[in-house]
Amino acid sequence: MLNLPGLDNPKIDTCALVFEWFCEPDNGQWLLVLDNADDLDTFFAKPTQSDDNAEPRRPFIDYLPESSRGCMLITTRDNRISKRLASKDKPILVDFMSLGEGLSLFRSQFKEVDLLNLEGLEELIDALGYIPLAITQAAAFICQNNTTIADYLKFISTNDSDIQDLL
Question: Taking the model in full, what pTM does it have?
């Protein structure tokens, strides 16, 4: 974690403070990872006034550093965002896993697969959209909570939007 002077000041623009750190040559090489950058308005909305005396909130793209000392890895499911953030570079598109890859990934998360009831696994992989992170998280949940695939499927198929958002 960065030890930035002023970070504990509630009136400080934290994003600007971090941006300045990335731009400072003495800070060496860095890697910035932005995962799930899926909100178009967060990155590209026009500046808005947040408080009466505060400066307008700038779009997050204004805080993304450009430096020869660092790299950014940004993941998003929104093609519009990927194209705009990549600017002159071409985004790298990652396809969904195949069913076989999803099954293999799920099984690899368990030490003793033979003891696991795999009934409904194909349905689970399909319900998770063949997304590696979702598959890994499902496997971790099933393992940590000592539950079955069938029970997990019931859990994620609930109509509770809060649970759906978490998944």
Answer: 0.63
